[in-house]
Predict the 3D structure of the following.
Amino acid sequence: MSLEHAILGLLNYEPMTGYELKKLIDLSISHFWPAVQSQIYKTLSRMETDEWLTVETIPQESRPPRKVYTITPKGRTELFDWLEKPIPPAETRVAWLVQIFFAGQMEDSKIIYLLRHLLGIQQQRLNAFTNIPKENRETMQNDAVRDRFFWMLTVDYGVAQTISQIQWLEKVIRAVENHDYRLPTLEANAN
Amino acid sequence: MSLEHAILGLLNYEPMTGYELKKLIDLSISHFWPAVQSQIYKTLSRMETDEWLTVETIPQESRPPRKVYTITPKGRTELFDWLEKPIPPAETRVAWLVQIFFAGQMEDSKIIYLLRHLLGIQQQRLNAFTNIPKENRETMQNDAVRDRFFWMLTVDYGVAQTISQIQWLEKVIRAVENHDYRLPTLEANAN
DNA sequence: AAATTCATGTAATAAGTTACATGATTCC
DNA sequence: GGAATCATGTAACTTATTACATGAATTT
């Protein structure tokens, strides 16, 4: 699992509640590791049991108490052990590639409809990425240049992958529109 | 879910057993939708309950009976409904990007070690992709040009994404080696 | 002699999603 | 008046993984 390590990493900046973690994850890590609220709360209580975190419960009037989680030395050890250990990149599941795989049985017009839809989504994604640097500059106050560099790298990666996808989709749409069913060659990709 | 639809698609070529499906998936769809054996068997029995498939059990001497699954008209309807409907691309979970996100807290040498490791894996992947066309020409006997075009497109996509990742990793390794922590600009990606 | 192929399945566990539940306060 | 914010949690369900189990026949 990686959500626990994402949480450890964030709590290593400063102690936080589950609610605050959720907001922070949505702005940053969610781009490559999304997490829903219920999952965060469940994971936090497991991590507390494992003694990676301690909790301080701060009562409030007319609201549930804030449960502020702090990383323990044990948690910090776990975090750095994990950070330094190479991970085999997980297999990605791409459902729309399953559609493409069987597209031979579909009409051209329907395939193009699917591809254009995907292209639109990727273009939107690319657009959304351009707004991230601003958001983060506002929300993440830590001024360490090095930290920020690596945060922005993850955005840069998303941008690079998205651009590559857009170019691929444009190429394929052109091919299908021209009824050009020659097999793509591997060489053609190395531009 | 998409494994069911992958199975429907394959059984729409010809009836098969779970064992044969597993082998075929490993050679083709597993690149973007991996499936372990137990998951395939479980899914098949659910699909039979849903009447997307029928089974014919063929006894064998000294071996478990072959259970040959055939797609039903209901299953075929489900397949084509699904194939034509745009799917919101699933969020991908990339654990190593979580590592990069927190890499600001690591030594350069350890970061470079991680990045080189990833680069090696992607280069191997790229290499493995070049062998797929041969494999498939042997195992998939269906000679429809159109079918093959779309099968190969999914490989082409993998190649394109992998090349893009390799280039990104090379760029980042260079930057970290030179202690060049200037923020990447979005514009630089549009080569 | 050992590994692989054929061929099925079950059980336990993990990780994540969706939906539900509560309820005051503050912003538009 | 309605939506968003703050703040916690539980329950049911889905999907997938890991590990176990059996056992003959064939290939290396």
